[in-house]
Amino acid sequence: MGRLAVFLDRDGTINKQVGYCGDPAKIELLDGAAEAVRRINALGLLAVVVTNQSAVARGLITETQVRRVNAEVALQVARTSGGRFDAFYYAPYHPTEGDDPRYTQDSDWRKPGGGMLRAAAKDFDIDLARCFMVGDADIDHAAAKDADARIVTFQVPSDYAGGSADFEAHSLLNAVQQISAMLAEQRGE
């Protein structure tokens, strides 16, 4: 039996949404997000970020900038709570925007495709059917269901929410509290 993971959208779920962000100095964690990641770790689950970064395809930021921002998110979480991410996956693609053929293309890594989740499952021996996804947009939940229809999804407050998630949560921390309760129930606690 494979490992379990909580897949996390980045912008609007872990840190505040600031548009196409290539500047680590603009990263500000959402309330409770660092503690939520620490709790994911304490539950023995993998914490895997899956984020669309079409600004790369659009020529607005570079992949190096995406990696620097990811590193800043990880650093702030570690400093705040001691929590850690197991991996960051990002999709630098957009099907029509931009003029670099490396990035201006269809890719199932770009949410709502489930490619990033499937790649993580392969890389970490994850049992997708028993995993969770927390995001602020319908494409996050669509990506999870594309990877495996049994992934349980949580919607955090957002302007991008359309009600497609399995459950509502008022924050990432609240979603992790619900996940913890579900796992305890499955174990018969």
Question: How does this structure look, described?
Answer:
- The protein is of the alpha/beta class and 189 residues long.
- It has a domain of 122 residues: 3-Layer(aba) Sandwich (Rossmann fold).
- The protein has five helices and six strands, in the order E-H-E-H-E-H-E-H-E-E-H.
- Strands 3-2-1-4-5-6 form a six-stranded parallel sheet, sandwiched between helices.
- Helix 1 packs parallel to helix 5.
- The model has no long low-confidence stretch (mean pLDDT 96).
Please supply descriptive tags for the structure shown above:
189 residues, alpha/beta, Rossmann fold
Q: Beta-sheet strand percentage?
A: 5-15%
Structural Rg: 16 Å
CATH fold descriptor of the domain at 5-126: Rossmann fold
Number of strands: 6
Mean pLDDT: 96
CATH superfamily membership of the domain at 5-126: HAD superfamily/HAD-like
| CATH level-1 class of the domain at 5-126 | Alpha Beta
Q: List low-confidence stretches.
A: none
Biggest sheet layout:
6 strands, parallel
